[in-house]
Amino acid sequence: MSLQVGLDLIGIFVFAITGALVGVRKQLDVFGIQVLALVTGLGGGFIRDVLIGATPPAALADWRYLSVPVAAGLITFFLHPGIGRVERLVNIFDAAGLGLFCVTGALKALAFGLPPLSAALVGTISGIGGGVIRDVLSGRVPVVLRREIYATPAFLGAGLVVVAYTLGLHAPWVAVTAAAICTLIRLLAIRRGWNAPIPRPA
Amino acid sequence: MSLQVGLDLIGIFVFAITGALVGVRKQLDVFGIQVLALVTGLGGGFIRDVLIGATPPAALADWRYLSVPVAAGLITFFLHPGIGRVERLVNIFDAAGLGLFCVTGALKALAFGLPPLSAALVGTISGIGGGVIRDVLSGRVPVVLRREIYATPAFLGAGLVVVAYTLGLHAPWVAVTAAAICTLIRLLAIRRGWNAPIPRPA
Amino acid sequence: MSLQVGLDLIGIFVFAITGALVGVRKQLDVFGIQVLALVTGLGGGFIRDVLIGATPPAALADWRYLSVPVAAGLITFFLHPGIGRVERLVNIFDAAGLGLFCVTGALKALAFGLPPLSAALVGTISGIGGGVIRDVLSGRVPVVLRREIYATPAFLGAGLVVVAYTLGLHAPWVAVTAAAICTLIRLLAIRRGWNAPIPRPA
What we know:
The structure is a homotrimer.
Chain A: H1 3-25, H2 30-52, H3 58-61, H4 63-79, H5 83-111, H6 116-137, H7 151-166, H8 172-192
Helix pairs in contact in A: 1-2, 1-4, 1-5, 2-4, 2-6, 5-6, 5-7, 5-8, 6-7, 7-8
Pfam families (chains A, B, C): Gly_transporter
Family (chains A, B, C): Belongs to the UPF0126 family.
InterPro entries (chains A, B, C): Gly_transporter (IPR005115)
């Protein structure tokens, strides 16, 4: 299994968990929870594959991809924590998925011949896509528009791996490190309330 | 006209009716109603065709496809029932569209060479797509996340036709029966309040 | 630079401004404003390119496309007017983008071999797409479903340029005029409260 596929599957798993957790919080039934798990887990990859012309998306062409979000949905349904701790877990798993997907998205875009900045943007879109779809479907303010920075760490992670690969650094630890940096920055942003300047009052 | 195209057009028609009915309920003008009719009628097919790489989507390449949702929009604008009965009609026509689209989506995916489980998932996504777009645009809770099962009958219908075709059963009645089973289960779910287990209270 | 690319870039710029203005109004930080600027500026073109099979979308394959919405976002962040005048500016820039995108969308669809009516529909979808994505993400009622006509002027502009091109009129002024007509009609509709018949009370 290639590095990009491996990181992709882990990313699908953790994003699916966030979708299922949101479903638990909204008291959906097991099928509704499963739908949110599938949509959040696979959404970012679908958008990425459609944009770079890699259709049908990886998750549709290979059934093993589908078992991952289904497993995540079932695990969450049976082992979810109390409602009070759901939001915190959503943030943690979402940050993990963000890091993994921004890197795999950028890598796949590079493999498809996109120029570096474009690959970084595809990585960013892959990273934020699943969470945005999850939030729009469940009626929450999209995470990418909330106070703590979200797209910025994703763009940073995608950009780091693009720069490294352009410089010829193809070792697996490069991608994993970039993903970890993105996840760490996102988690720090949540913990410390990092946000950026807002427009001056008019 | 092939079976898949015929069922597709009927599915577009009934889904477009649900979009127009929602527009009537929200007191939109005839153009807003027409937009919802077009988006709901064609949305599922667009998503399906983009995912399996069949671009441009059938409805864009063939103008006859476009006349169907336009007709549905106009018919609904002039012949709509009282507001009190709109929601019930939305459910009925939506269930019909769900059955038709989950089957045509699965058939088209098989024709494009997707493996069976992937084709069943494409069918499910085709079936639920139009209704979800309609609900997100009009500010309703997406039908796929409400109490009564929605994606499950779609997956069942898609799965049935995929299994049958894999076994060599290509007769038209197979697809029509799978669509009818999906529609029936969805209608029964609404009538009897069928839903699935919800997470245990935390 | 071709006409279609030039009009595209101007359209991206003005649509990105509307996204950034909505971000200012919602008091988002500079990154949230930038996200809305990028999504609104590029959204219509992404949908267009995906539908006609022109992947990866122009904006992803050419980094110069990306600098336009980023510039729009920064300009708006620093030079935005008082909150009370934001909505009026959103309407004006959005009408400009609508005109430009409905025309460039139709032109690109024709260039990709779509039949005339289909090209007009692609143009309409390109025109309305960015604004709809912007509104759904920021929790506003989608502009295409509000009282003043929106999709109709887009369809008219797209239709005009399709008819002209089919008749062999390829001069640049044709496209520019069609865009201007769409924009003008949309602005007049807002100013005069033009709307269409609503369904009879039930």
